[in-house]
Amino acid sequence: MTEISEFVSVYGHTGFIGSRFCEMFPLSIKMDREAREPATNNILNFISTTNNYAFEKDITVDVEANITVMLEILDAAKKKFGNDFSFNQVSTWSVYGEVSLPANERDWCNPTGFYSITKRTAEQLLETFSTIYSSRYRIFRLCNIIGETAKTISKQKNAFQYLIKELQADKNIVLYNGGDFIREFMYVDDACEAIMFLMKFSMYGDIYNVGTGIPHNYGELIEYCKKIIGSKSRIDRVVNPFPHGSVQAKDMYLDVTKLKDLGFYPQYTVYDAIDKIIGIKNDNI
Which of 113, 109, 133, 135 is nearest to 123 (CA)? Predict the structure, then answer.
């Protein structure tokens, strides 16, 4: 079999995580959004919709971005390299749905919402494609990724940082579920390091959770942010509006035993990441 290139063909290099990955790793080759044929046989796919609400504007956008583009890249890679390529697919914690926590890679997935379902379908199609054509693949299921380099944030996309921005502006904010739910956060540099680490040292044909494995109460983190910002914002705690409660699990954090067993540990805590987002200098980081 052909050796896998050290150079990585990166799809989705303009996004939050993909752009930071390319900044951190000079061997990245930025693939044009419309390109399908990879430059190298080492492929990393970040292309995706980013939340469970895109379908409200375009009913097929999740299918196109999360499934169709991936299949077109796979087909182009097969035509160029045969089965001698490595396809690394970036996925998400939301494919799990409601499961016992922490969510383990062996758990049965039951996602809800267009985004989550299409991301899980993409995983299954990649697995099937690789079985049929004997190609190599990995799947990385990321927790919530945060960092100061995020450019586009909203209530639907990177909501945690959106709320921090509102607190900094002394605007009143609303917490769904009364803020009483569990989430896991990982600093973007740690996420990129973990992805590259797994591309170098993990087995093919497997799924890996990427996160810290540390659960946090969402409301408590927001209260912490308000305190260190010195915000005058009022925090209103409400029940879930429709369709928020129908499209993703209430609580989630990941079992990252496989990642740790390989030797990877994150360098930043969620509080380190918050300091960076807010702009607090920490000489210990």
Answer: 109
